[in-house]
Design goal:
Layout: H1 7-35, H2 41-57, H3 67-91, H4 107-118, H5 134-164, H6 174-199, E1 210-219, E2 225-231, H7 236-245, H8 266-290, H9 294-321, H10 324-328, E3 333-336, E4 339-342, H11 355-368, H12 383-394, H13 405-425, E5 430-431, E6 434-435, H14 438-463, H15 466-469, H16 477-491, H17 506-536, H18 552-589
Antiparallel strand pairs: 1-2, 3-4, 5-6
Helix pairs in contact: 1-8, 2-6, 3-4, 3-5, 3-17, 4-17, 5-6, 5-7, 5-17, 6-7, 7-8, 8-9, 9-11, 9-12, 9-18, 11-12, 12-16, 12-18, 13-14, 13-18, 14-16, 14-17, 16-17, 16-18
């Protein structure tokens, strides 16, 4: 393998993207019917369940609230979910379904982990199979995965109502939106995916860990023979299904989706990658259908896909080319058009069964969304590969973004792009018949700028404090990249990491915990405020000066705005990390 794309590589990429985009249309159409209250086959089956849940909870589905009431319901519900998981983690050692007798966690780790799961970040500074009980995995993590994912989805639904409604004071019922998201979308899809994963060998049981004999005995560090190995068990498939479909990430096992019990085959790897992008892509179609303009949804989906393909165009060649320092040493050299390369590309930290292309597809998918699962170690990627992973998060994770949050994040950029275009032509900007005025721009600006502030401020605190520097295992530019990546991941609710940073310390557990909570709930408030403001506006008919927002020209303008905003915010920081590391690597290798 080398820096040049082969036919099989191209086929793999086309098959992957084709499957995602092909499934996005019917799923997006189905979700539009569900959230518009139109009849569906699943609705006939699960309708009585939904109505029964409302009666038990005392919820009146016909009662709607304004954006402030919607936000309060969302925040209070998430607070109680946080406290539940926090206490579960502390008391784990005294609770049942814990065959390995694992103790409860420390307070700082419980705080970080509870906030991480609730915000769909799944930042893990611990080894899953040696830290969490089966009860925590099922009642805690898997259940919270559904609730956290649905929270992002309902914010998008509220935003859509803000765009569609005219002279309205309300934007929906949070409890109904939450129930329908889980009951009609997340549960059915997760059930199907979990069954498919079990068929591929992903474990799903409550068995104690099993000790088995090694086929070829080895010796430990002291020279003593090792003849057995302990195999972790547990209800992994059910957790993996919603962690991927919900763009949540995390891992049932420590090595995440590189573990053969979590991702055993090429087909399971493909299914999990498709699951990561499926709902975010489908929600673009849902958005278009619910606002009455399919072209609007296609515009957003096109912008996301272009950015994703651009990311692949940089990351895949960088990983295929390998490390020129190893080529200089004569390690596994091969010739292609006069260039030297490792025959397998940069394979450090990658699974041989997946390879450089598949690993690049996965990492670009999870850093473009808010999914922190990995099938390769990002810390071992080339500087350019790591730069792309960072850049995808720096864009605000809108490629294709998290469930609900990806589309709303892109719509915030649409508002900014429309406003800037209006300034250029001297006309009050409009979007889908609603004037974009000062309040919307204030909220959109805050929704965009909160993340760079959290990332850069958190990184600055870490690199000037002894506790922050103590976690770095690789000094220099790469060590800076590890800290920058950690705060970028936390602020964007991603959860992936450069594994070289020792983050399971009180310092990182507390500071990253606060960053990921602020990174989730600050933009929620800003976006709901925009929704409430838009809902109260009257509809403005299109005129000769109305800017079309579904054309290729507007897609190009939108992409320009996104890239410029990201560059202005993060270029200096990226220059100190992966850019410097890349230049150092080329200099040491004698590449000019």
């Amino acid at each position: 393998m080398n820096a040049f794309m082969t036919g099989s590589d191209a086929l793999q990429i086309v098959l992957f993207l084709g499957t995602v985009l092909g499934l996005a249309w019917p799923l997006g159409t189905y979700m539009a019917r569900v959230f518009s209250g139109k009849p569906t086959l699943i609705g006939k089956i699960l309708g009585p369940v939904e109505r029964g849940l409302y009666r038990i909870a005392g919820v009146d589905p016909s009662r709607e609230t304004d954006w402030k009431g919607y936000a309060v319901s969302l925040l209070v519900f998430n607070l109680f979910a946080f406290l539940f998981l926090f206490l579960l983690l502390l008391a784990q050692g005294h609770l049942p379904i814990n065959p390995e007798k694992l103790p409860g966690t420390s307070v700082d780790l419980a705080f970080n982990t509870a906030g991480s799961w609730l915000t769909t970040t799944q930042w893990q500074s611990y080894a899953g199979e040696s830290t969490m009980s089966y009860l925590t995995d099922m009642v805690g993590f898997t259940a919270i995965d559904f609730l956290g994912t649905a929270t992002g989805l309902v914010v998008l639904l509220a935003f859509i109502r803000g765009v569609v409604r005219k002279n309205a004071q309300t934007i929906g019922n949070f409890w109904c939106d939450l129930t329908r998201s889980i009951l009609y979308v997340l549960l059915p899809l997760s059930f199907v995916l979990a069954v498919l994963l079990v068929s591929q060998g992903v474990v799903q049981n409550l068995s104690p860990y099993r000790t088995v004999p090694l086929v070829s005995p080895i010796k430990d560090a002291s020279g003593k023979p090792v003849t057995t190995q302990t195999l972790p068990m547990g209800p992994a498939a059910s957790m993996v299904a919603i962690k991927q479909l919900g763009t949540n990430g995390g891992g049932f096992f420590n090595v995440n989706s590189a573990h053969p019990f979590e991702n055993p085959t090429g087909l399971s790897d493909f299914l999990e990658m498709v699951a990561v992008l499926l709902i975010p892509a489908a929600l673009c179609i849902t958005y278009g259908a619910m606002v009455g303009s399919r072209r609007q949804g296609i515009m957003i989906l096109s912008a996301m896909t272009i950015l994703y393909v651009l990311a692949l165009a940089v990351m895949i060649p960088a990983e295929q080319a390998g490390n020129p320092l190893l080529s200089k040493l004569g390690v596994d050299q091969g010739a292609h058009s006069g260039l030297l390369a490792q025959s397998g590309g940069n394979m450090e930290g990658k699974e041989v069964r997946f390879g450089a292309v598949n690993a690049s597809l996965w990492i670009s998918a999870i850093t473009g969304t808010s999914n922190g699962s990995v099938n390769a170690m990002i810390d071992s990627f080339t500087p350019l590969g790591g730069l792309v992973a960072l850049a995808l998060m720096d864009l605000g994770e809108v490629v294709y973004g998290g469930v609900g949050t990806g589309v709303t994040g892109m719509l915030v950029f649409v508002i900014v792009a429309v406003f800037l275009a209006g300034l250029m032509v001297g006309r009050t900007p409009e979007y889908l018949g609603k004037k974009i005025e000062i309040f919307e721009m204030k909220m959109a600006s805050l929704a965009i700028l909160y993340m760079p502030v959290l990332v850069l401020l958190g990184t600055a605190v870490a690199v000037v404090s002894k506790a922050g520097i103590a976690g770095i295992e690789n000094p220099g530019a790469h060590g800076f990249s590890e800290i920058l990546y950690a705060f970028t991941s936390a602020a964007n609710n991603n959860g992936s990491a450069f594994g070289g940073l020792s983050a399971n310390t009180p310092f990182y557990n507390w500071i990253l915990g606060f960053v990921l909570l602020l990174g989730r709930y600050l933009p929620v408030v800003f976006i709901l405020a925009i929704s409430g403001s838009l809902a109260r506006k009257k509809h403005v008919p299109e005129g000769p000066g109305t800017l079309p927002t579904e054309t290729p020209l507007f897609v190009s303008w939108l992409l320009f705005v996104i890239l410029v905003v990201a560059a202005l915010n993060f270029f200096p920081a990226l220059s100190l990390g992966p850019v410097v590391e890349h230049l150092q690597m080329l200099t040491l290798a004698g590449v000019h």
